[in-house]
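Entry for the shared binder. Reason: the reviewer on the internal report wants the predicted structure included alongside the sequence.
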Amino acid sequence: MQVGMIGLGRMGMNMARRLLIGGHHVVVYNRTYEKVEQMEKEGAEGSKSLEELIQKLSMPRVVWMMYPAGELVDETVSILSSLLSKGDVIVEGGNSFYKDDIRRARMLKTLDIHYVDAGVSGGIWGLKVGYCTMIGGDEADFKHIEPLLKTLAPPDGYLYCGSTGAGHFVKMIHNGIEYAIMEAYGEGFELLKSSPYGENLELDKVAHLWNQGSVVRSWLLELLESALGKDPQLEGIRGYVDDSGEGRWTVLQAVESGVSAPVIALSLFKRFQSRQNDLFSDKVLAALRNEFGGHAVVESDK
């Protein structure tokens, strides 16, 4: 299948690579052209502008965006709306707020341009293991792009979640849960480190042990084992933990829905606190974000 990939960041570039490996014809565009040139060497067809990318796609076109949520997505959708034709499909694969999806889809519908929201999880490991993908929009559009989803995802790794916004809504809640799980690991390992037994405990081995049949085993715990194996005291990482929006939106949704979500809310507030302190539990969170998503860490002064 032919697809235009816009945005070759940490995830977009590897998604394009996975699609190429799967035999799809991938036309790529990125604001920094060096990344386009890299993908051309790997078999993609490069473009120097959005206009050129659209010209190289056959109708009905499928354009997949992988930009950070916010104004850049709106600007790009606006440009694409003037370039695309009736029946073309825009897939928004970043972490957009689901209400923004609804607004964009309503605008594009007046032009008979289709809009699909795709919540994508997999981080920098997705190229190897696949991307868990949550889809919102018209079911017919989901079926149309399904060959791409089958290539991008591991077995049983994608789901049509419902009408416009549903994909990003499910991804938003996914990330809220992720915040809470990571916070629990962070606090637990800080308790281990601060205990009377902390000096003798090899925390990477504890993480490895807990992944052998324990009820708290997980991929995140595997990544924590990796991070602790490289830096047992996480001395090279400052406990500064950023947030990219989904946790905030999840907490706001809990308020809007009248649902009690204290653990997720507190995990968000703890991230705010991390920008003032430098706790070991926050170092764990920062290390985990770097391990699964390649998110930047603030290096310690030590």
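Summary line for the report: The CA atoms of residues 190 and 196 lie 12 Å apart.
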